[in-house]
């Protein structure tokens, strides 16, 4: 069986972007592959969370993984910081990762723009930590959304470079994976771009949002004055809402509003109401499970411990091999 690795940063609750970009693939893949799904708490340190926030969000993501249907008997679910071998491999990979290529990464350039007061070394070396996550289990498939594609390319570069340097075949190449034809990019509600935690709460629909909150957020989603000509191309904000509807609503609902749009007869109020109701239908069973699982701390503890043991077993095998290739052999 091929090995699969993916993770999510515990920087907030999971939203529809995380679900349709990543988690829905996790749930399907676990039947067919050897899967490792983790909570990327080391990665989230780049933004200096308080210990209480960090702990709370790690717990949240763990609950949400389980509520979405990741089965801890089938997949290995773990917290990144429980596997120190990842940090060790990160150190080795950093020795062969160059300033120029790290600075060219789009996610780094975005961060330099969005948090100019906190351009730390962890941000610069974010792609080597991510490569360590993937290479530590020798994964070949990585279910992620479109925004992570470049990181996967860098992971292949670092893995191949290590192999060449030590004349070995330690690391296989890993590729971004989605069951859908293309990698997914779920738009947000602000009319501009992807759904994301850093784009603000109003822009995201969280899996744990109540029906009232969903109705309120969707009713405030950015639209425009409406189409002025028949069959005109949709501006980005409207296209985004249609794309969200394609994700949660049946095809005939989407077609109905599409026809209305093309005939200049669409009423955005009705369109948004339908979108909100279909989001509620989708998220209600998950939200109810989140609430139920969140109560069971001893179960969560057991899942995290069991996952850490399994993940470390695999990670230690790789680290042993890597140490010996590097020349850290005993006298
Ligand atoms: P993160 O925490 O930003 O997002 C987690 C996953 O959700 C996907 N995603 C989206 N997909 C589609 N549309 C969206 N609007 C959207 N927003 C988020 C992301 O593509 C991702 O799959 N660097 C990673 C975490 C990570 C990782 C790894 C992933 C660390 N190590 C190793 C895979 C393998 C990140 O920041 O994801």
Folded structure, characterized:
The protein has 14 helices and five strands. The chain has a three-stranded parallel sheet with strand order 1-2-3. A two-stranded parallel sheet has the order 4-5. It has helices at 16-29, 41-44, 51-68, 84-94, 99-103, 106-114, 121-124, 126-135, 149-165, 211-219, 236-248, 251-262, 268-293, 297-326; strands at residues 3-8, 34-39, 76-79, 141-143, 175-177. The radius of gyration is 21 Å and the shape is globular. 55% of the residues lie in helices and 7% in strands. It has 331 residues and is mainly alpha-helical. The two termini are 37 Å apart. Strand 1 (3-8), helix 1 (16-29) and strand 2 form a beta-alpha-beta unit. The chain has two domains: 3-186 and 296-326, Rossmann fold (3-Layer(aba) Sandwich); 208-291, Tyrosyl-Transfer RNA Synthetase, CATH 1.10.240. The protein binds tryptophanyl-5'AMP.
Here the CATH topology of the largest domain equals Rossmann fold
Query: What are the distinct ligands in this entry?
Result: tryptophanyl-5'AMP
Net shape: globular
What does the radius of gyration come to? 21 Å
